[in-house]
Structure formats: structure tokens, C-alpha cells
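Quick one:
INPUT:
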């Protein structure tokens, strides 16, 4: 039988989506922290398709009132969830020496991301398409590579920036899908929204733990890490209540709003 960290590595590097989901479902942490020294992973386990392209080369958005438009959206969301499986597994594999709860939490996140991927892929099939039929981009995994050296940086930028963005945009996507009559997609996204709130909360909890263990102020550290390492735009509007539930502080919310205003002023 594989030990836990070997099994996590095998799941992370599994290329076939069905077998990856099966491996994730079978994962159980047996205590302690990873025994295998992590190595660089420029490319995780993923299928040959979708073809990965620059964001500007992705298919143009179409009206969600057409099946083709919904396929473009659902395919993009399916790709996000597949990448999220690898991101959660990498958090377990990547960072030894943390409390056992860290690994338990991120394995639970991986299992939920695998479920999200399955739900969206099944819906994509109901629309007459398949995961891999359209190109996608590699931005999420590139963030994993960029934050591989430090769990504090990973917790700041992946759950508290990238995943938190999902809390902001999902309600609007649900409203558009409801107008288009795709109630199954709305239902799936409601499950994802609920779970992702928990995932961001996990990131917030371990971000604060790491700050406290290093004698750092969590709010000031979050501001500094985002300013130093996040190259994208922090786009609003922000779902303040959801973010507060997920572990953001009122001061962090005020800072995000101010930073967005500053970005808009620079663009103007």
C-alpha cells in the first residue's frame, strides 16, 4: 500500500482525469507531515487536451442564450476546477513540516474540487461537448509555480486572491445562466460557491497561522505580499459579506477597495 505522501504525489501527477478523481477519492492522511522531499513540478499531471494557449487566444465569449456560448463558459469553469485539484494536491505535497491539520484540510479541498470537476464535466457533456474540446490557459498552475517556495505566499495568493475572486463573480454568472434557462448550471455553481467559501476560509486560517508562527502581522503581510507578487488586477466589485465569512478582515476589505480604486485611476 502506498504511504500518504506517495499517494498524493501519484494523484498530483496522474494525467487521466478519471483516474485522478479516483486517486483523490482514495486519499487518506496517515499523520505527520510529508516524508518525501518535494521536487519542482513545472507541469502537473493533466491530459494532452485542452491545448494551453495565451489568455488572449481563448475562444471569444458568446451569449449564454446559445448552447455554444454556454459550452465556452462551462468548459472554462471545468478547466478551473481541474487545475484546482492539482493546486490543492500540491499544497499537501509541497510544504512539509506543518501541522497535520494543514494536510487534512487541503486533502478535503482536493476532494471537493474533484467533485466540482465531475459535476461540470457531466454538464458539459449534456451540452454536447467534452473537457478538452476547447483551448484553455495555464494561469492557475503558473501561480502554483510562482508560490512554490513558501506556504505563506501560497496561502496569500492562491486561496485569498485567485479563489476569492470566485466568490465575487459566481453570483453574477448564476444570474446570467438563470436568465438563459440553464438551471442545472446554476445549481452546480451554487454547490461550488458554497464549497469555495470554505476553501478560502481554509487559506485564511493557515495564512494567519503562518503569520503568527513567524511573528508577522497578518493584514500588513497580506498587503505586502499582494503588492510584491501579484501581477494582475484586483477586480471588483467584491462580495464583502462572503469574503468576511471566508476570513477577510474589514481592514483587508477596505484595502482591496482602495487598491481597486487606485488601479482604475491609473488606467484612466
Amino acid at each position: 500500500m502506498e504511504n500518504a505522501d506517495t499517494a498524493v504525489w501519484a494523484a498530483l501527477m496522474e494525467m487521466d482525469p478519471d483516474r485522478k478523481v479516483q486517486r483523490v477519492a482514495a486519499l487518506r492522511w496517515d499523520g505527520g507531515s510529508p516524508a518525501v522531499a518535494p521536487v519542482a513540478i513545472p507541469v502537473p499531471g493533466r491530459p494532452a487536451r485542452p491545448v494551453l494557449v495565451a489568455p488572449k487566444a481563448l475562444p471569444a465569449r458568446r451569449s449564454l442564450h446559445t448552447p455554444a456560448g454556454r459550452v465556452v463558459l462551462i468548459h472554462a469553469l471545468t478547466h478551473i476546477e481541474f487545475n484546482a485539484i492539482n493546486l490543492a494536491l500540491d499544497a499537501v505535497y509541497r510544504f512539509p513540516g506543518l501541522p497535520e491539520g494543514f494536510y487534512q484540510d487541503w486533502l478535503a479541498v482536493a476532494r471537493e474540487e474533484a467533485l466540482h470537476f465531475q459535476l461540470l464535466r457531466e454538464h458539459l457533456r449534456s451540452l454536447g461537448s467534452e473537457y478538452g474540446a476547447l483551448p484553455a490557459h495555464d494561469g492557475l498552475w503558473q501561480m502554483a509555480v510562482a508560490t512554490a517556495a513558501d506556504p505563506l505566499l501560497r496561502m496569500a495568493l492562491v486561496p485569498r486572491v485567485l479563489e476569492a475572486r470566485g466568490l465575487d463573480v459566481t453570483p453574477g454568472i448564476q444570474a446570467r445562466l438563470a436568465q438563459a434557462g440553464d438551471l442545472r448550471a446554476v445549481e452546480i455553481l451554487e454547490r461550488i460557491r458554497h464549497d469555495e467559501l470554505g476553501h478560502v476560509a481554509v487559506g485564511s486560517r493557515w495564512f494567519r497561522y503562518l503569520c503568527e508562527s513567524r511573528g508577522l502581522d497578518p493584514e500588513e503581510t497580506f498587503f505586502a505580499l499582494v503588492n510584491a507578487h501579484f501581477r494582475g488586477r484586483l477586480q471588483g466589485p467584491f462580495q464583502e459579506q462572503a469574503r468576511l465569512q471566508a476570513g477577510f478582515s474589514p481592514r483587508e476589505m477596505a484595502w482591496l477597495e482602495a487598491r481597486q480604486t487606485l488601479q482604475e485611476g491609473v488606467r484612466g
